[in-house]
Fold these 2 entries.
Entry 1:
Amino acid sequence: MKWGFVGTGRIAERIMEAFKQMPASTVTAAYTRREESLQAFCDRWQIPGRYTALEALAADPEVEILYLATPHIVHLEHFRTLVRAGKPILCEKPMGMSAQETEKMVRMAREHGIFLMEGMWTRFFPITRWLRRLVASEELGRAYNVMADFSYHSPYDPALRFFRRDLGGGAMRGAGIYPLAMAAMVFGEMPVDVCAMAQQKNDVDLRSAALLRFPGGGLAQIMSGFQGESVQGANIAFEKGAVWIPDFWHPQRAIMRTQHGERVISLPFDFPGFQFEIEEVERCVAAGLQESPEMPLQESVDLAAALDRMYENWQ
Ligand SMILES: NC(=O)c1ccc[n+]([C@@H]2O[C@H](COP(=O)([O-])OP(=O)(O)OC[C@H]3O[C@@H](n4cnc5c(N)ncnc54)[C@H](OP(=O)(O)O)[C@@H]3O)[C@@H](O)[C@H]2O)c1
């Protein structure tokens, strides 16, 4: 299918690498504000359609699917324009800056009868799908606890989006959404109790941690941050064993430990791994679906609500 990119920043660059490995999926047009970065991006990736007006990109008859990859602070604003074109939209995570914004986007997508999905690419990796099957099979019994950390070190730079409140910066909303979504996926529900803390600078959480309690009794401990490298793993404690997933946000293997010993489940893929998310969107669009059964829209709204509660906790 033919895609149109809205935003040509860091994530657009990375996802392009996946498109280059997928001959049936092409990026045919791109939009960004600045002419200079638009031309540089399109030259680099040989993209013919070049726009500095959002409406023009959305209306390009060559474009079949829109990929919204501007900073999340402007997702809703850009979405309002894009949705009128009546084309399917993959919107980068987090979809909105709050549950209210996310809900608005979901409502508009439904009113226009279009496909919409939050870009939770972590959901579609072979190892993540294996984990979902493991939970459903109850082979290890019930899942009790999840511990997941998505932290990395990014030197403080007040010009960078991560550190700017006016650009929606902050660790929990930008990065912590992955460990949160992992816990919600394992327990199949959203937390009822949230206890969160953060180390902030200029009203932006540089590091954040949360303890979550789920209605069925599951507990989770999640961390995210731009200060301090972490192993970025997820540990899931089941009744009859444990699963450790290194690099859980783009996993290639899992280690399952039971009383019978240790088993390594290896499901490798080529970096960067965005192909699974792209395939899911195209599969849903081809099937005429308006949302992905693996990343439903209500889940995006509920994740945003859980994030809202964390930010309320420390504000
Ligand atoms: N899935 C993932 O692994 C992943 C990883 C990173 C980020 N993300 C998500 O992707 C989104 C974009 O992040 P990024 O790191 O790619 O951001 P970025 O590097 O700052 O790039 C933002 C892009 O949006 C454009 N843009 C258009 N209108 C804008 C406005 N009003 N304000 C600022 N920029 C505007 C910028 O245009 P100009 O070139 O004209 O400035 C630039 O092309 C975020 O929601 C983020 O959470 C996802």
Note: The chain has two domains: 2-120, 126-268.
Entry 2:
Amino acid sequence: MLGVQIFVGHSGQLCRIEIGEETMANKWDLKTVRRDWKNRVFFHSFKDLPESQTGKYERAMEIAAASQVANPKFSNYFCKESAVIHNGNGVSAGNIEYGLCQALHGEESAVSAFRSVYGRGKKKPLVLAIISSDDPRDLAAPCGNCRDIMLDDFGPDFEIVSGRAEGGLAVVAKMSDYLFDKPRIDSGFMFPAIRDWALETLSVGQSMENDPYSPRNLYPERRYYVSLATKENKYFGAHHLMCDYHPVYAMERAILKAMDIKKDPFVACVMVVASHAGPKPLLPHVMYRDRQHLYELNLYKDLIVDHELDRLDPSIYLCSVNQERKVDCLWRTTVKEWLPFPFSPMNFGREFLQHLKNYQEVKR
Ligand SMILES: [Zn+2]
């Protein structure tokens, strides 16, 4: 796995920067992310491409490096970002922190600033740039929530470039590199125990759900229910929506239960269920914010039991239940597979991980 960088983004400034053709070329040594036939990630050089094709990355990095948007009052981590269109013009963005370690992230900021300047219509950014003070070989990793907003508003086809403000190595990845939506179909639904668990997750989840807001006909695959199984217990979750449109998602709610009194992050397996009335099975679409929270919970387990970090990878069942309350399809993935290039406390370095381990052990 490649490492990643911290950013705690944020939003909303309307700082528009026009960059002319005199922008210094070749300040950054650009490389792109590729995968080999074994799906291993490596960097591929851009060297053979003319400046006319790589200039957009340079311009995006220049605009991001000049960004004055960030206000990281808690983290002191300045996220400097940008979003540019085909002619190299674009908007700057950054993180704005507020409340208690609450933040409008740099990518959320970029979406908002981009739409403020360019409106709706068909226009989408070509490149989103992220300035990192970390080793640029560590690919920038947007958090789960930022993946959710970028996917919905910009789609999966734009590129993300990251590197240091002063130049040097800068890495270009596609937004689609950060997404995973192809779990394997699994024959586990042949087993009564799996079917019973799925139906229990659906029943308990529907009784817990608080959602008077989401339109029933929009994204039914995003209205899912969750059960986390640990060695000792099962913790259920369903979405909790209130009028401010800052929901607690189903996975987060199950995690809150697991960590509430017993402090039980020992995830063994996860069930996610979506129900449908149509003729075809419905693959639950779990929001990336939920995936990231599960990733962090699993990391707590690794820290507490002193496993080598990043070694354990619990299975996740994704289950479709039809109107007759019959399981009609089951897919399978893992905590790590469905969040490529994860954003997690591992991004904050070994010293912070030791603090996190001590904190979780004292809490138990
Ligand atoms: Zn984010």
Note: Residues 299 and 310 are 7 Å apart (CA to CA).
